[in-house]
Design goal:
three-stranded mixed β-sheet, alpha/beta, 45% helix, Aspartate Aminotransferase, domain 1, 2 domains, seven-stranded mixed β-sheet
C-alpha cells in the first residue's frame, strides 16, 4: 500500500475501535424502531390487517394466502387490470422497448409511449398538455413543490390524500388547512391571504369517505380571491362524468380547474401518474418538478397498459354503468341493514364503526369469513371515525355483493353494530 492508503486505513481502524467502545452512539437513531410495538401487538392478538399476500390477479375473486376470498378493497373500479387488451398492450411494449428506460424522463427516459399517453390524457381531460410521472404520489409531490414557493400559500382540505400533504411539506409555501368540504372555512382562509400567490388543492373523490368535493363552491371561491386550483382525480377518472373524464366533467367545470392530477393505479389498471394543465404550466413542471426530473422514467409496459385502459374507458361506457349499479346496490344494502356509510356517494363505500379495536375485530371476522376489506384507522381518518373501507368493481356480480351483505349482517350482529 502507499503511505496515503495506509494512513486512510489506520484512520478507519481508529474510528471502528471508537465506535465499538461506544455502541450507544450507533443505536440512538433506531431507538424509535425498538419502541414501536403497536403492529406487533396487533399481530400477537391476531388482528393485524396489513400486508396479507394475494396470490392471484385483482379480480372480484382472489386467492389470499391460499384461501378464496371476495375482494372488496380494490381500486380497480372498472375491472381492467385483467382485461386481455390491457395485458397484451403491456406485453407488446416490453417486446418493443424492453423492461425499463434506464434513466429519467428529463434525460434518456422519454419514449414514444410516454408521448402518446400524454397526448391522449390531455385530450381526454380537456387540457392543452400533460406530463407523465412515475406514480400519482410523485405527480403530486412534483407539481405542488414546483409551483408553490416561499412567498406563496397552499390551501388544502383536511381530508386530502397523504401525497398532497407531503407535496405541501416539500414546497416552501405556507400551508393552510380547511375543514372537510367546508366552504365557509375555505373562504375565511382565502380572505386572509387575498392578493398573495395561492394554490388550492382538493381530492375529487375522497378516498376513505367516498364523497365528492364541492367543486362549484371551491371554484367560485378560487375565482373570487384569485387562487389557483388543482384537483387530485385519482379516484374520479373512469368513475365520474358522462364519459368518465373525472370531477371537472361531472360538474361541467373542466375549464375552471388549473391542474388535474391522475393516477394509473385505479381505473387505468396499472401504476403511474400524470399532471394535465396548460402548455405553459406543463412546460414549467417539466423543468422544475424534481420527482419527474430526478426519478427513473415510468417503464414502457405500464404506460402502454394505461393507454389501452383509457381507450377501453372511452369505448365501453357500460362498464361505468355496471360500477355505479353495484355501488348503489351495496350502499343501499348496508344502510338497510343499519350500518353507517357516512357521506359516501361513490363506489367507495365505507362502514363507519368509530372504535379502532372494534374495527379490527370486525376486519378479522370478515377476513375469516372470506371478505377482503380494509380497516382504516387514525391518521387515515380522524380519531373516533375508524371505518371498514369497501369498494366496488364493475366486475362484481350481484351474487358477490349479496354474499358480502350476508357476511356483513352476521358479523355486524355479532359485534352489536346492527340489530
Amino acid at each position: 500500500m502507499t503511505d496515503r492508503l495506509l494512513a486512510k486505513q489506520e484512520f478507519a481502524n481508529q474510528n471502528l475501535e471508537a465506535v465499538s467502545q461506544h455502541p450507544v452512539h450507533r443505536s440512538v437513531l433506531f431507538e424509535k424502531c425498538r419502541k414501536y410495538t403497536r403492529a406487533k401487538e396487533a399481530m400477537a392478538a391476531g388482528v393485524y390487517p396489513y400486508f396479507h399476500r394475494i396470490d392471484s390477479a385483482q379480480e372480484p375473486d382472489v386467492i389470499c394466502e391460499g384461501r378464496p376470498m371476495i375482494m372488496m378493497s380494490s381500486n380497480d373500479y372498472l375491472g381492467l387490470t385483467s382485461h386481455p387488451k390491457v395485458k397484451e398492450a403491456a406485453i407488446d411494449a416490453v417486446r418493443q422497448f424492453g423492461t425499463g428506460c434506464a434513466g429519467s424522463r428529463f434525460l434518456n427516459g422519454t419514449l414514444a409511449v410516454h408521448e402518446e399517453m400524454e397526448a391522449q390524457l390531455a385530450r381526454f381531460l380537456g387540457k392543452e398538455a400533460a406530463a407523465v410521472f412515475p406514480t400519482g404520489f410523485q405527480a403530486n409531490l412534483g407539481a405542488i413543490s414546483a409551483l408553490v414557493g416561499k412567498d406563496d400559500f397552499i390551501v388544502i382540505d383536511r381530508m386530502n390524500h397523504a401525497s398532497i400533504y407531503d407535496g405541501c411539506r416539500l414546497s416552501y409555501g405556507q400551508i393552510k388547512k380547511y375543514q372537510h368540504n367546508d366552504m365557509a372555512n375555505l373562504e375565511k382562509i382565502l380572505q386572509g391571504i387575498e392578493g398573495r400567490g395561492a394554490l388550492v388543492v382538493v381530492d375529487g373523490v375522497f378516498s376513505m369517505e367516498g364523497d365528492i368535493v364541492d367543486l362549484p363552491g371551491v371554484v367560485a371561491l378560487c375565482q373570487r380571491y384569485g387562487a389557483g386550483l388543482m384537483v387530485d382525480d385519482a379516484h374520479s377518472i373512469g368513475v365520474l362524468g358522462k364519459n368518465g373524464c373525472g370531477t371537472g366533467e361531472h360538474f361541467n367545470m373542466v375549464d375552471d380547474i388549473d391542474l388535474i392530477m391522475v393516477t394509473y393505479s385505479k381505473s387505468l389498471a396499472t401504476i403511474g401518474g400524470c399532471i394535465a394543465s396548460t402548455e405553459e404550466v406543463i412546460h414549467f413542471l417539466r423543468h422544475h418538478a424534481r420527482s419527474l426530473m430526478f426519478s427513473a422514467s415510468l417503464p414502457p409496459a405500464p404506460v402502454a397498459a394505461a393507454t389501452m385502459a383509457l381507450r377501453i374507458i372511452e369505448q365501453e361506457p357500460e362498464r361505468r354503468q355496471r360500477l355505479w349499479n353495484n355501488a348503489n346496490y351495496l350502499r343501499e344494502g348496508y344502510q338497510s341493514l343499519g350500518f353507517d356509510t357516512g357521506v359516501s356517494e361513490t363506489p367507495v363505500v365505507p362502514v363507519v364503526v368509530g372504535d379502532e379495536d372494534r374495527v379490527l375485530r370486525m376486519w378479522r371476522l370478515l377476513f375469516d369469513a372470506g371478505v377482503f376489506a380494509s380497516p382504516v384507522l387514525f391518521p387515515g381518518v380522524p380519531k373516533g371515525k375508524a371505518l371498514l373501507r369497501t369498494s366496488c368493481m364493475a366486475t362484481h356480480t350481484r351474487d358477490h355483493l349479496d354474499r358480502v351483505l350476508e357476511i356483513f349482517t352476521k358479523v355486524g350482529r355479532e359485534l352489536g353494530l346492527i340489530s
